Structures are given as C-alpha cells and as structure tokens.
Amino acid sequence: MNKPLRRVAIFCGLLVLALLVRVNWVQFVQGDELKNDPHNRRVAIERYSTPRGNIIVDGKAVTGSTTTDSGDFKYKRTYKNGKMWAPVTGYASQAFDANQLEKLNDGILTGTDDRLFFSRTVDMFTGGKQKGGDVVTTLNAKAQKAAFDGLGKQKGAVAAINPETGAILALASTPSYDPSSFAGMSNKDAEAYNALQKKNDPDEPMLNRALRQTYPPGSTFKVVTASAALENGLYHDVDSKTDSPLPYTLPDTSGLQLKNEGNIPCKDATLREALRWSCNTVFGKISADLGNKKMKAEAEKFGFNDPGINTPVRASESIFPKDNRPQNAMAGIGQASNRATPLQMAMVASSVANGGKLMKPYMVDQLVAQNLNVVQQHTPQEMSRPLSPENAQKVQSIMETVVKNGTGTAAQIPGVTVGGKTGTAQHGENNKDNPYAWFISYAKTGKGTPVAVAVVIEGSDTLRDDIAGGKLAAPIAKRVMEAVLEGQK
Amino acid sequence: MSSSTTNTTTIGTIGAPSRRNTELAMLIFAVLIPVFAYINVGLAKEGTVPAGVLGYSLGLGLLAGVAHLVVRKWAPYADPLMLPIATLLNGLGLIFIWRLDQEPSLGKAMAPNQLMWSTFGVALFLAILIFLKDHRVLQRYTYISMVVALVLLVAPVFFPGVNGAKIWITIPGLGSLQPGEFAKIIIAIFFAGYLMVKRDALALASRRFMGLYLPRGRDLGPILVIWALSLMILVFETDLGTSLLFFGLFVVMLYVATERTSWIVFGLLLSAGGAVAVATFESHVQTRVHNWLNPLELSNGGVTETAQAMYSFGSGGILGSGLGQGYSRLILGIAPKSDYILATVGEEVGLAGLMAILLLYGLLIERGIRTALAARDPFGKLLSIGLSGAFALQVFVVAGGVTGLIPLTGMTMPFLAQGGSSVIANWALVAILLRISDTARRPAPAPAPSTDAEMTQVVRP
Prior knowledge:
The complex is a heterodimer. By secondary structure, chain A is α+β, with helices and mostly antiparallel strands. Helices cover 39% and strands 18% of the residues of chain A. In chain A, strand 13 (364-368) and strand 14 (374-377) form a beta hairpin. Chain A starts with a helix and ends with a helix. The mean pLDDT of chain A is 90. Chain B is 65% helix and 4% strand. At the A-B interface, helix 1, helix 2 and helix 3 of A face helix 9, helix 12, helix 14 and helix 15 of B.
C-alpha cells in the first residue's frame, strides 16, 4: 500500500503548495491593489486616523482637523470659510470620500505618500505620531475673498491667474457649499450631503463652475478671433480699416444676417473700434475669412480642445469644434458650438497680457512634509505661444481701449493699465434663457502684469446687450484685480 | 554509532529512538510562542502586559506538560512533532480568538469557552492514549461506526440552520455541537475497517472497460452510496465542505486500499457530476460560486464578507500589521473567529506568518502520512491515511475558501478556529495518529539472536 500512500503524500503536498502560492498571490502580488482599494475601509480609517495635513493659502491653513468619537475614524476634517474655499480644496468626508485637492494629494495629507517615507521613518524612531504633510497653494486670500464676495448671491464663477507664472490666484464658484457640513459620518452629515446633490438642489452648489463648467464664451471670444486675425496676417494694423460690410450675411446661408447689438459704427471698423463696440459683424467675418481650420488652430494654442489641463484638479475641456462655415463664423463671436470654462478665458486674457506666452495654470506651489521639508516644488511651465510679442502688444492695446472708453469702463482702476473684454452669451433655444455675463481682463503696472481674471455670471435677467458683461461682471473683476495689486505694494 | 545513524527513518525493524526529549524541547517553543503573542496583543491594544498572562502561560504549560508526560508513559515511541504542532496551533488559535474578543463589535468573548473546550480536547487526547492500548481494537467497531457516523451526519437536518448551513445540533443547556467534526473520525474508522476486508474484491474482481477497471456492482455499491450521501448532505444541510470532505476521504482511502487509479477517475467524475448537478439546483451553492468568481463585487451597495477577507489579506502584506493592530473586525458576525480566522492571521502576522502556519499544517499532515507509511498493519495504514487525508482536505477547503482559491465552504480551520466540536475532535484525531505511530515505531519484540536478524520481515496479518 506504500506506493499509493506516497502519491497521496505528494497530493497533500500539492494542496499545501497551492495554498502557499495562493496566499503569496493575494498578499504579495495583489496586496497593494487590495490594500488601496477604495472600498477597503482601512483606506478611510488610515485617512482619518491622524490629524490630516492642511491646505495652505498665504501661509495660513484653510483646513483643520478635529477629533470625533465616530467609531473607526478618529479625526474629522474642518474648513475655515468652507464656502469660499470649496472650489479650491474640494472636500474630505469620512462617509463620502474626497475630491479635488483633498483627493489628489491624499497621500501627502494623510502622510502615507512614499515621498514622506523619510520623515515617517524618523517619526517611527523618535516616537512621534504620524501626521500628514501640507499642500501649499498659489491662491491669494484677498483676491479669493473679493471674487467670492463680488459674486455674492448670484450664480457664477471667477478664475484669476498670474499671467507671468500661471499661478492661480482666485477660484470662486457660487452658489457654494461648506465641506465641513458633511465631513463626518453622522446622519446629519448624510442629510447635508444629500441636500447638496443636483437632484435635490438644481443650483448645483457642489459644481465647481470655475473649472468644471463650460459656457458659451460670447463676445470675450473676440479676443481670440482678433489674435487669429493678426497671427494669420489677415490684418496687420489694429487701426486701419477692415473690410467689413454692414449688415453682414453669414456665408453659405440664404441671406441669414449677423446682427450687432444696437446701432453701432461697425462698417469697415478698425479692429480697435470693432472690439471697443464689440462688433459681431466684423469678428464674424474675420472668423469666416480665416476659416474653421485656422480659427481652431489659434483657439487650441490658447488651450481649447485640451482635455488635460490639470491644475492639478482637472479642468473640463473647453471646446472649439470642427464646424461648417456659418457655424464657424458664429464661433468667431463666441455664440456657436464653442464653449469655454472660466479658467480657459482667464488663460486667454493672461497669455495676451504676458506678451503672447501662455503659462500652464497651476494652484499647488509646494508639497511640504510634516517636518517642513519641501517634497515637491512647482516650477512655472510655458504651455504655448498663441501670439507673437508684437501681436500681443496690439491685442493689449485694443483691449485697453475697451476699458478706457468702450464697454468695459466699469473695470477702470486709477493709475493702473487695465485691458479687458465684455461678453454676454445668449443661450438656450432661440436665446430664451437668461444670458451669461462675461468679463475677462488683466491689470498692468510699472512692475509687471500680476493678474488676469475671467468672471462669468449666469442668469442675469435684466440686461441682454453687451453692456451686461460690463455692468455685472466687470466690477467683480476690478475688485479681484485691486486685491491682487494691493498685495503687490 | 553507525547503526543509530542508519536508523533515523521512522520505518525500521530495529525501532527508532523514542525522541521524547525532542518533543519536550519543541513543546517549550509551542508554549512560549503563544505566550509571547499574548503579551504582544496586550501591549498593542492596551499598552500593558495583559493581566491574565501568568494564568494563561501556566494553563497552557500545564496542558502541554501533562500531555507530554502521558505520551512519555503510554506512547513512548509516538511521533515527536504532532503534539507540539497541535499545541502551537491551538495556542495561537486561542490568542487570535482572544485578540478578536477585544473588538466590541464582534459580540461576546469566546476565548474562555475555547480554552475550556481545548482542555476537554486535551483530556480526550489523554484518555485515548491511556485507554486505547492498540488502535486495532477499533477494527471491531467497523459497522457500529458506520451507524454512528450516519446518525451524526443526518442529525443536523432536524435542527435549525445557522448562517444558511444546517451543520449544527443544539442540545439544550449544553450549547451546540457540530457532529460533522466527529463523524470525520468515525467514518475514517468505518472505511478503514470496511476496506481492509473488501480491498481485494474491489481491486481484483473487475471488468475492463475502455481502459479502466470497472468494479462489480456490489463492490461499487458503497462508493455510490457515499456519493449519494455526500450529495444529500449538501442538499439538505447545504454544507459544501462536509460533503467534499467525506467524498474525498472515501476516494483517497479506496485508492490506497486497492492501489487502483481508476477509483480516482471515478471519484473525480462522480464528484464533478454531483457538483454540477447540485450547483444547478442549489441557490446557496450558486451564491458561493458567484462570490468566488467576483470576490470584490459589491452587494446591495455594501462590501461583501468575501471582499472584506480579501482586503484583510491584502492589507496585511508581507509582514502584517502586527498582532492586535489589524482591522479584520470589519468582517462582521461570528465568522471572523471561526471560518475567517485566517483573515486575521493574514492581516496581523502577514504573509510570513500565514505561510508559517500553513507550513505547520503541512508538517502535521506529512507526519500523519508518514505514520501511515510506517504502520505495519493495513488497518493502521488506512486509518492514519484517512485521518491525515481528512485533515489535509479540511485545511485545504477552509484555507482555500477563505483566500479565494476555491469557493467558500463553511468549515473551521482545525485547532485555530473557534469551535468546541472542532477542537475536541481534532485533539482526538491527533491522539489516534499518535497511538498508531507509537505502535509503528515501537521496536519489534526482540527476535532471537540470529545473524540474519536484519533480513527478518514483518508478516502481514
């Protein structure tokens, strides 16, 4: 009987071997994947087991941590002025995971990131408690406050960038939410979270409008159209007459006319006058003359059609589509199928202000370990060059005219050169919905160009002409620019 | 000197050294390791050495010491490794259960009960070694065993099910009992007795059909009965593990008894057929298979037990989170202390610790098979391979199920898991194996001085 016994012994050996192979597979090969699976509660337990690192603005934390007695989770996230900073920080909730900076930098904030290995090891030996590192943002607290207060009860968003570096200075979105309200995991937190969902609140307070919502850019897009005209050599001088009939008939249509808002002097207007009065006819014709391909190429240099604008929070893709001739002509005045995020339009203003050079927008300057060692430092990066320096000068000059004595006078700041462009974007079927009021601008001083802003306000029901952008949005842009300039002094 | 070095195998006509001192040395480790683990859990959870450490060490030490003395007296030539391994596994099991007792969400403390059952288990172990002078006595009870095993297996049908499986009988005032654990041993005794008598008939009286030896109907009868019975256990008690265990046990013992590979083929065909048939009818089994194929799938928006166990293993990684510092409590209910206890092992002592424990099981199984090889009588061979095979299958089915190698079945990890019937039955199993190994390794009665003594062979009865 010994032969079959030996075979049975081998069989049993194989059973044990199979188990050993399996546990190696599960614990070694699949180990990290299982360990970091979002449904593995240990991830959340770990995230809340130590005071979380902070998100820093102007050297001060806009976040905090407090101890709770809710079972597994020792610490809970708190936010200072949460409504104002929510579009920047995102949220970290014991029950509802995290998003935006809180999520993207989770490893640093919880202290589990591999780059913190050294300080963690030191903590282990010195007996210090593990705690998270900090995320230092580029934001400007005063500018953010100006933007948030300026938006007030209106629905809208503000994005402000430093044109020279691409550093994001303000990122406001209203209506907003307080991430503290659902940071824990009690029933109250769940109620607060549910109340903020789109199906319960049509105003979508949790939508980050500055980065994640695209709007028809309206007349602010005329800055891109003017840039395309200059870059492609369609016109060389912003003060010589263009070849623009009034009224202008859209190409490839049976007499469909593109109209201006009101009776403004647009026949053969110079680029300067056309932008000053916001002539639809002039810019519609420029776009048609250049053609879809050239317009699309220029828009893409400004950042359109790029799905990967990571600040590091990803901005939604702004669109300038391939389209037919009449639609393309309409796109030249920002009223066709092209759409842009507020960040995108701030990028347009910033690259004009920065001598034609577009810097990659970013909002995390440094990641700092718990012992204050800098783990990662952002260096400004050039993204593209939509304009030559000469053409950038020309576009600046006509944008400055808009603020000096055009539709954007509301953005004037004494002693500072301000360039801007208003916009009122119609939307909805037959333009029945309330238009969006836009304003993009930049401010220049003797020391440089520290700020470019884009403001959008949804649903102003009183004004339907181009003045709306100037009336509603420009004052907010002005306050944001002033806040940044004040900090410069 | 040379004669002792050539006699290190357990098979020998001269008789192996008793190895009792080796056993004692190993036992000291087997007691010290759990004691250190106990202190470790206490330090990790409360920051102090647990109050019960002295009592616990003395208790475990006393149990191990008494067991050792009894083995020394009544089974002096028994295998030296089985008792230390069983003690170590039992001791570690107590630690893990006690450690899980510290989690309030997992219900009332189980470790004191487990300690009591372990004591009963060791008592039964001692009783078997003292009163069962020769394992061949068990041969006399072949058919009584069959009746007892059948009664034990069928009994749970008349009691309410727990967690979807009817494997318990409840005795008022005494608590519940898992008769399957005892049936495992008793049925091995029945098979060993039956096959010893019938093996020639089964092996030789057969017709050749398509390259396989088909046994006669009357010889094939029992295997079909067992097959049907194991299916019935599965259907009526929804106990996948026990049915697999008994069927596998029977096939292994048949194969060893008859030395016919065709039995293995029949066994595989029948079990595959049975498994498919049952899987198509039983929703319980279908759920298990589904969970096995999709371990991380959410059910009703929540994480399943299967997924929780996988997360435990994954989070443990190579070195584990440390005793007392894991979160296997996330696997809620009673299971973390019984079926899923390996998940706690995997998480808290890591891949390294889990492999060590699996190797301990492997070693225990291997010592059992070695006992079968060394046994001089066919009954002893069959019984010890049956017991070791059952033990191996159980370890494989449980550990494989919990780690996701095979579909999960409701069974307990021998010695490690919480469960009175299980720990008592497994101590009895080890006692019988020790008794057989003692008989096998005991020096043969000194033959008359003869120059060709070494050529003498034991004649099979």
